[in-house]
Amino acid sequence: MATMTFDPPPTSEQVSNNSGRRFPFSYFRRSPSQEPPAYVAEDFLASKYQKASKLLSSIRVATSLITLALSIAIIACADNSLRAYTSTNLGGEWFLPLWPAKVDLRPTHAVLACGIVVLVSSVAYLVAALFPSPRPKIHRLNIASTVISFVGLFITLFTTISASTVNSHLSDNSGSATLMTWTCKWQGLESIAPDQFEKICTETMISLDLVILLLIFEVFAVAVTGWGWWVETRSKSGSDNTIKLESLERGSA
Questions:
Q1: What confidence tens digit (pLDDT) does each residue in 120-146 have?
Q2: Are 72 and 39 in contact (CB under 8 A)?
């Protein structure tokens, strides 16, 4: 009867040598004692404020695009009103002049100037925000947004108050009037109203309403500017606190 023989079990030294040949740690490109990098507080803060910065930039760009569109519409309405007035103003030498002796154009000029200022400032911010830069732009955009938003807020508020005051003051004056007050008196009398009066009335009213709407967006832009400075301040304070904590840990080690 044949006997069965078995090889002796490998020693611990042979096992370690064989395992070293079969599973070299160089295949994994790291040593067996190396651990994955820790997710420190600074990385969390950087990720948090990076998301806030992106959201802030998107809101500012969207607001600038809206104010740009509104300013273009304001300029178009005010310019058309002035052109229509020029083409229908025949002067006092005619027997039946279409306009009163004194027409106050200040409200229309103020609305037109407001649209131009907001148009230029909106384009300037869009260029600054969308122009690529290798460095973070949050501080420079905060400065630009502060200047542009407060300028827009001032010009729209001044235009709204001044134009509304002049139109209200001259609404019942027979000797002088504005483009809006004179042409809108002919509402309901389209059959005998001069040509383009209905158009001038509509465009002057729309342009002033758009200025009021623009004022609301400028108030919102100022609030977004304050949020931008808060994000920048919190980002810097968070980085400083992390650096101080790391310094304390190194000193106690």
A1: 999 999 998 888 776 767 788 889 899
A2: no
Q: Do the beta carbons of residue 63 and residue 129 sit within 8 Å?
A: no
Phi–psi pair at 146, nearest 5 degrees = -65, -50
Note whether 78 and 239 are within 8 A (CB).
no
Nearest to 115 by CA among 143, 91, 88, 80: 80
Helix axis angle, 41-88 to 138-169, nearest 10°: 30
Helices (H) and strands (E) in the chain, counts: 6, 2
Burial of residue 86 (CB within 10 Å: 0-12, 13-18, 19+) is exposed
127-155 as b/e: b if 16+ CB within 10 A: ebbeeeeeeebbeebbebbbebbeebbeb
Q: What is the pTM of this model?
A: 0.72
